[in-house]
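Listing 4. Sequential folding, example run.
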Amino acid sequence: MDIKERTNEANNVITETSGGQRNAGWQRSAILVVGDIIVFLVFAIIGRRSHSEASDIFGPAITALPFAAAWFLVAPFVGAFKRGLERNTGKFALRTFLAWLAAWPVAMLFRGVFVDKGVPPWTFALITLISNTILLQVWRVPFSLFFKKR
């Protein structure tokens, strides 16, 4: 086997390995995004039920939209989706908290502009901060523990 053949063989191995890692990274990201969407839908369903609001198929999605939009707008810039971070559960949980803390005022702004047509009550804002912090942690910490082993 000459040097040219060895080089080509090595390049093929590197491409296959990095491609597999790239696919695994995208799969993790996709699972994380879907889980985050479910978190905001659960928050919306709980909220709508606690206020005895009618639950059609679109109601929870519309209610969740300002929160999810703020999360996906802000969280990537805070590093909540940084690849490899899920392997350190403590850092992942902290980054999730900091990302929601940064996204929360944006969520309240979106909620105020598009839903309430004014400033949301401070009690609602506080409940939103605490509830979504807990729900995101309940989802993301087990996610981290699962992928930590892989």
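-- end of first protein; second protein begins --
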Amino acid sequence: MPMRTILGSILLLLLALPTSDHVAEARRGPSGVRIECSSLSDRYEYCRTNAIGRVRLERQLSKTPCREYQTWGSDGDGSGVWVRNGCRGVFVVERGGGGHHGGGQGMSITCTSKDYSYAHCDVPVWGRNVWVQRQLSDKRCVQGNNWGVDWSGIWVDRGCNAIFAIR
């Protein structure tokens, strides 16, 4: 078989391979950014929104229930949405609403270790108390082990996904 035919066949195979079963498409609208994010094959998936604001589920696309903090959630600033266990939906990042929950002196933020990898959530914590307000992952979050605080925020690692309270 000539080399040109072999190279052409390889190129066609590479182009036909799926790069990921990740589904995310962001669209800007008057009320903010809409993004479709899907957990296919019951896998965890993270979708960047490229926006800042408060995230809400606009429309569920899956038969599997989408429940905030259980099968979907967002970064504290709204810059990303995560889904798992078959949740598929259209999410809206609304402008003006901060992604941090709560108010007054205290606040909370969702920080997620995607694929058991290290992640850092930039949030003012200097001189404040930080604790796990609600655990979102099956993996237990243990301070000093798979989550902690540094001078610029909260870090998580090895599967710790939680809402952290800051006061």
